[in-house]
Task: structure prediction
Amino acid sequence: MKKLGLIVNPIAGMGGRVGLKGTDGEDVFKKALTLGAKPVAPERAANMLKKLASVKSGVTLITYPHEMGADEARVAGFKPEIIGSITSGKTSAEDTKRAVLDMVKAGVDLIAVVGGDGTMRDVYDEIKNAVPVLGVPAGVKVHSSAFSTSPEAAAETVMKFLWEELPLQEAEVMDVDEEAYRAGRLSAKLYGFVLTPYEPTLIQGMKVASLEADAEVEQQKAIAKQVVELMEPETVYFLGPGTTTRAVAEALAGEKTLLGVDVAKNGKIIAKDVNEKEILKWLDKGECVAIVSPIGGQGFILGRGNQQLSPEVLKRSGKKNIWVLATPQKLSMTPTLRVDTGDPNLDKEFKGYIRVTTGYRETRVVKIS
Amino acid sequence: MKYRQARWTSDVCLEPLVFELGGKGRRGTFSREKLLSDPEIPEGFIRASINLPELSEPEVVRHYTRLSQMNFGVDSGFYPLGSCTMKYNPKISEELAGLETATNIHPYQSEETVQGALELMHNLERSLAEIAGVSRVCLHPAAGAHGELLGMLLVRAHFKLKGEERTEVIVPDSAHGTNFTSAAMAGFNVVVVPSDSRGRVDIAALQEAVTKKTAALMLTNPNTLGLFEDGILEIAKIVHKAGGLLYYDGANLNGIMGKARPGDMGFDIVHFNLHKTFSTPHGGGGPGAGPVGVCKSLEEFLPAPMVEYNKKAKRYYLDYNRPYSIGKIKSFYGNFGVLVKAYTYILMMGAEGLEAVTDAAVVNANYIMRKLEELSDYEFKYPGPCKHEAVVSVEPLKTEKEVTARDVAKSLLDYGMHAPTYYFPPIVPEALMIEPTETESKEELDRFVDALKRIAEEAHTKPEKLRSSPTGTAIGRLDEVKAAREPILSWRMYKREKTKDAEAPPQEIKNDATP
Amino acid sequence: MGSHFLPSTRESLNEMLREIGVANIEELFADIPSKIRLKHGLNLPPPMSESEVRRHVKTMLSKNKPFTEMPTFLGGGVWPHHVPAHVRSLVQRSEFLTSYTPYQAETSQGMLQALFEYQSLVAELVGLDIANSSMYDWATAAGEAALMCARVTGRKRFLVPKLISPERLSVLKNYISGPALETVEIGYNSATGQLRVDELEGQLGEDVAGVYIENPSYLGFLETQVQEIAEAAHKAGALFVVGVNPISLGLLKPPGDYGADIVVGEGQPLGNPVSFGGPTLGIFACRDEQKLLRQMPGRLVGMTTTLDGNTRGYTMTLQTREQHIRRERATSNICSNEALCAVSAAIYLSSMGPSGLREVAETCASNAGYAMKKLRKIKGLQVPIFDSPHFNEFTLKCVKPGLGIETFNDRLLELGVHGGTPVQREFPDLGETAVLCTTELHTKEDIDKLVEAAARAVEGKK
Result:
């Protein structure tokens, strides 16, 4: 019998409809309530569960009480197995964390998380990659690629994962500075990676669509192979955060810090998790190349959240020394790339087109806006 | 109009496999007289047995006749497959390609015994050269993709002789899948350029893409959106200025015949699909022919032999004396049987006929576009007018009703019309690529638009019907996932699987949740 | 003129133009820069009616002399065999003939099943589990096989026999030029023609992706050391590729039985006319192994069921290998193939059955044996040049001093017989030699006529 965990974050997404962006922090939540915000997540959860109703006899739904899952489950006709305890009306990140831990202990095959980036960060903090998770969007704007595009799409993915074989991919969990976001700036940082079933999307083929697709991993390996072949001796390369750059490090027979910037030279990783100061020191010694790839679902190759590849670093490197890697799958999600270095003049310099390595001997000219 | 395809069923299948028919000792052909001598082949090399079916001729004929009834061709109904140019195939072409003087000649026969074939190929070459505005045409390639590969090899040979190392071929993101692969097969790195908001090649992006490493740009014109690349002269300038070559993918030639010629646009290499523009039948996937024309400076690299005419001796001959030729890309001289059909077609149409073809093809496509624009569920991402094909998006249906381009296309099958190409080009979401061709009447086009209208209506009222279509064909939707996950590609494999299943424990009843 | 193919008339076009909202057709072409607009139309001969074109083309083709009108002994890649009448009538059915690639499985079960049957029949013929639904011809199939070997093994050298068909070698070299693979030619024993296995072993190393032989060879003899070659290749970690004339497999042991990993060949003799060398039919088959299947080029039809699991059906599968899904990463760029020729082959093989195909093959070999026996008695000729068993092709060498093979052939032609394919230019070591072919279509009279003409041609008599 398949076991599906369900966690609903009732306060996720409440800011959006009343003009706030995100609801982290109790103050913001309170403000949202006074503005008349109504919970969004429960409805999304119910929509997803309704679509899953046809298979409910084949799956055990394990969830938390009341508004954290049990209510929505019953509305959709499920008879869930309820674990844990909460104080109804006063849920918090701690509850999310306990819930996810309990579900892992209960041996679930997959955890559906109805919430936003913040909710996913809490899940990640607690269980990292122990069990695959799938996000159902209920946040204002979701940046993590661990989320489905809609509750209905999530239901399809859940079914496919539980009954057929869907590959798992490492999906980025993003740390969006919600305060900055509310102030009109976007500052997204890579927070971590969770395991997510990835549904090979209907690949846009020539005359027919096929359900199968390249494992993104294979494509990343191809990119890595190309990068390694093109790396020049004596040149210093900074490998930015991400799974594609990690593939490059692996091809160099090294391990990479997932969230940090590592340094490669002459086919070897020579320094790990360097900070801005250290990077500037390398730049002092000579020309370096920064290898980056788009992070999150918005296509940012250079984001303000990147403390290591700071505006100073980028100014000194120049556009010509930025090497962008991206799988075609990534680019199909975000056909235009974005830059938000923190320095508007620098941003302007990057605008236009840039060559992106998309595979072995494949390049794509992509617009940066 | 409704369509009910023939449906033969037998137990758990439609028509049984030929291996499941017949009986011991039956035979469907050949009977031999006495052997003239004993074959001098040692026992050890003789095979013990061969597992082929045993059927009499009537059984074979009935079996394949039934299979043909569960198939659909241009002769059956409207076949608006974008970029495939599914036009009517003249039957006179079949008759002439089937003459003994065409089928029973061997390529290695002494040239004096095959003057007719050589003359035909020579004349066909001249006609294609005129239609495309090129200098010479090689008739060898067996298909479009094959011609593309030849084109890429010619590009390589050109730069090798010049001593220039050019490693990149530029392809628009809307290009036909074979473009990318052919370039890669010839050893080039592929650089993809995006399309702009008008659906044409983004010239600014192209300028970024073109460097001293650029060997060629591959383009279709009209492009896969059915739109004419009106910036073609500038595009040609950009590429040529950087020393690169221009390659024309002839898939969409039906949109400009008699109006403009690729050679005049600046293309150095022009490829043709005889099974598209020149009306040779598609045969369920082939055979086709993909001749490649070139400008003067690339002639020397073409594969040998080329057909030449000796004016003095008044003879056609095969010229193998081509020192700079890249060699061969296929045995012999090309798909002659297909060449005969294309030649026949060109002779019948003449210049005015080919231009009339383009006129009608373009009017038909624009007519459909105009009619569909009136329906809110069908969106055109790029403004018209189009040429011979139009790409419509059913994104509104997907967003509102979870009805996809594929569902719409499959539903059309129940109206007795073949589905258009869908999900292509990849830059249009939920795309349906519609190419009516010139051999369709206004009534047929109206029927098509009407069918799409009804389908859109049903998307709102009973979308599940669309998602489970077609229902009027011999079979409904198939489990493609299973086909890929547990491949059974031959009778041998099937038998083995069956024996394995017979020995295996009973399977868990799968939950019937079909997403 | 061809206007009978166009349903639209001036009136209906104008009506549609009105609905489109343009004043005239020119407006639809206004975006073509005037600089390149054709002002005077194309310069082609005036259009012909159907009866005119019939007369015109028939007259043109009548300048050909079909090989059925005189005893002809040509082979070398396409061979004249009997094409049963019902094969042609079946593939001329318009539901097959005018259909496109069967991407819409629901409406194309006919074509899909016919191709599945073709795959199955080829699999039985060559002794391997998996065959694709066609490639362009033997030569391109061999080229694709070399590329596949390189992809599977990651190595760069491909070993071929020196006596490989020169046209196939040229095509092969073009196919492997992209990834810059290398061919190495292995020598032969001058008495028997057999591949020099010692030389092969000398060349086999960690950089060899595949070993390719043709069996029967281009010059007609059988390779007798196939087991040793297979073992040597496999021991070195290379794949073993065999190129065949499938008719021979009616009689001879299939390559799948003696260690072939990949089999390529020319399927034209199976129910397809010679047709001046095209359309042809490339056979491509491989062993059922994941690492091979994933890298196999060409289209594959697989068996499956409807979504409810109740009815058997067929669909194109494993398309992720193909160009339209993977674009630059595809296993091959092949799109249109030779599908209808494959269906002809399927019908042919289903009609032949095991005994029929065997008899055809035996007749081919027997006719060759009879011809060789008689020809070798003629002074001034060496027939065949290799002391090995042959199938249906064999070599004939002019050893009379001063007699060139081309002259010999010219004389034969004057005597109303068409000789074989001269190979002296491609294989100068072999001297004034031609390759002759006999099939089940040759009668005793045909061969006797050849022998008589050959004797006179050698003498120089008219």
Observations:
- Residues 216-368 of chain A form a domain with the Rossmann fold fold (CATH 3.40.50).
- The longest helix of chain A spans residues 216-230.
